[in-house]
Design brief:
Radius of gyration: 17 Å
Shape: globular
Largest sheet: 6 strands, antiparallel
Number of strands: 13
Number of domains: 1
Strand content: 35-45%
Structural class: mainly beta
Oligomer: single chain
CATH class: Mainly Beta
CATH topology: Immunoglobulin-like
Helix content: under 10%
Distance between the termini: 19 Å
Length: about 150
């Protein structure tokens, strides 16, 4: 399943893939991501590996830098593996364009955003249905056997 928000694409799968965060932009620029936990709007502190209340003065601790593939307009980075909460969480991701020589909360611009569902080790397909029965009827009115699923409260 693919979901697109303002040219920001996440591929939703139930296994660990690399480069879950990516964006297209002019080659040779500096892009970074800010990762916000949806449940409390805390921002990921990539330096201290924890979620914090956002402050402009600490923005250089929050950046998750996207790598630019040589001779392309493609940038990507893995979702931080240090985010290991075993409860499925929803995270909002902002892609920022670094305008000058260093990260600056007042000058850098947000150029895209999206949402990722992370279970502590990998991106998760939020299209999963919460059920307790042994079968379920899908959108095409076909009966299918349901796999064991965890309850998701987002």
């Amino acid at each position: 399943m693919c979901i697109i928000w303002e040219s920001f694409l996440f591929v939703k799968e139930n296994y660990k893939i690399s480069n879950e965060i990516y964006h297209s932009f002019d080659e040779g620029e500096t892009l970074y991501a800010l990762i916000w936990r949806k449940s409390d709007d805390k921002v990921w502190n990539n330096t201290d590996s924890q979620f914090d209340t956002y402050t402009d003065t600490d923005i250089d601790k929050y950046d998750v830098v996207l790598a630019n593939q040589v001779d392309s307009d493609y940038y990507s980075v893995d979702f931080p593996s240090a985010i290991t909460d075993s409860t499925l969480q929803s995270y909002r991701v902002q892609i920022m364009h670094q305008v000058a020589g260093s990260i600056n909360a007042d000058n850098d611009r947000a150029i895209a955003q999206g949402e990722i569902f992370w279970d502590g080790t990998s991106e998760t397909d939020i299209g999963t249905i919460n059920i307790t029965q042994s079968s379920v009827v899908n959108n095409y009115n076909e009966s299918v056997t349901s796999p064991p699923l965890q309850i998701i409260n987002l």
